[in-house]
Design a protein that fits this description.
By secondary structure, the chain is an alpha+beta fold. It is elongated, with a radius of gyration of 22 Å. It folds into two domains: 151 residues, Butyryl-CoA Dehydrogenase, subunit A, domain 3; 117 residues, Nuclear Transport Factor 2, Chain: A, CATH 3.10.450.50.
Length: 288
């Protein structure tokens, strides 16, 4: 076995871990594979001479590639779901693989990771999910170990979500109402949806009126829209410490639904799709 063949086999033994790091960093299977491939190209050019820990070296290289990709993405503005990866052909196999990968990470986790700043995301993913020491993370970010620790801590607070504004029992009941609403929408149960809506419920959305909000004050119309709209694809989440929902195919956040609940009835639903607002919302994971 020659040196290049040995190098290729050694790289393959680390590929799945590197792919896991890159996917959690980028939220895109194609981009993750591109980052891993770049790691291989750099290794094949430089060789392994002088590298004491090949796995650690590759993790650092791939993480830096991902960081550059995240920063480039941020500098040109967040792309719409349909546009992200538009230059790549998505086969049914690709879609299946990405769906499986997103499920293995957890939809809620991917949604929250997508709201973090690039440096926060890197620090959290590498330390909390892959146990990379803060000293190494600091070197990747060109910051101190303490600064890397603070970035991970800040990201961790976002991932865990803020404490509920109400008491625990009240938050639990909010969650039950929202969960019931989403379940009724998924199974197409119009009467169950209507029973959960206050007669004076109002639904607002920034999706239809640029710079403003479309508003509906008819419970039957709101229930009908829930049956054919985003509520069918929504998943339970914590929105600013309150029970809410997100629409996030493969972990890419498209819309947030905020609910106002009084006396176990939904009195208001706010659908937020504006990318700038979505980036600012404190989202958290609700454990099942």
């Amino acid at each position: 076995m020659d040196d290049q063949e040995w190098l290729a086999q050694s790289f393959e033994s680390h590929r799945e871990r590197l792919r896991g790091v890159a996917y959690r960093m980028l939220g895109s299977l194609h981009e993750a594979d591109d980052a891993v491939q770049e790691g291989w190209l750099r290794l094949s050019r430089s060789g392994a001479e002088g590298i004491e820990n090949l796995g650690g070296w590759l993790t650092t290289v791939v993480a830096r590639v991902c960081l550059d990709m995240l920063r480039a993405r941020k500098s040109r503005g967040e792309e719409a779901e349909d546009a992200r990866g538009a230059t790549r052909d998505h086969t049914a196999h690709d879609a299946e693989q990405e769906a499986l990968l997103a499920d293995s990470v957890g939809l809620a986790m991917m949604v929250v990771l997508d709201t973090l700043e690039p440096a926060e995301r890197l620090a959290f993913v590498l330390h909390d999910l892959f146990a990379v020491p803060f000293d190494e993370i600091g070197r990747i970010l060109d910051r101190s170990s303490m600064a890397a620790r603070q970035l991970a801590s800040r990201a961790r607070r976002r991932v865990q979500g803020r404490a509920p504004k109400s008491d625990a029992a009240g938050f639990r009941r909010q969650r039950e109402v929202v969960d019931a609403f989403l379940a009724a929408a998924r199974r197409g149960d119009f009467e169950a949806l209507l029973a959960l809506l206050d007669p004076n419920v109002v639904a607002r959305s920034d999706r239809f009126v640029p710079g403003g909000a479309a508003e509906v004050r008819d419970a039957r119309v709101i229930a009908e829209r829930a049956l054919r709209g985003g509520a069918r694809a929504a998943r339970l989440a914590s929105i600013d410490g309150m029970a809410g929902a997100v629409v996030a195919p493969r972990g890419r956040l498209l819309m947030v639904l905020r609910f106002t609940i009084e006396n176990d009835r939904i009195t208001a639903i706010d659908a937020i799709a504006d990318p700038e607002q979505l980036r600012q919302l404190p989202l958290g994971i609700i454990e099942s």
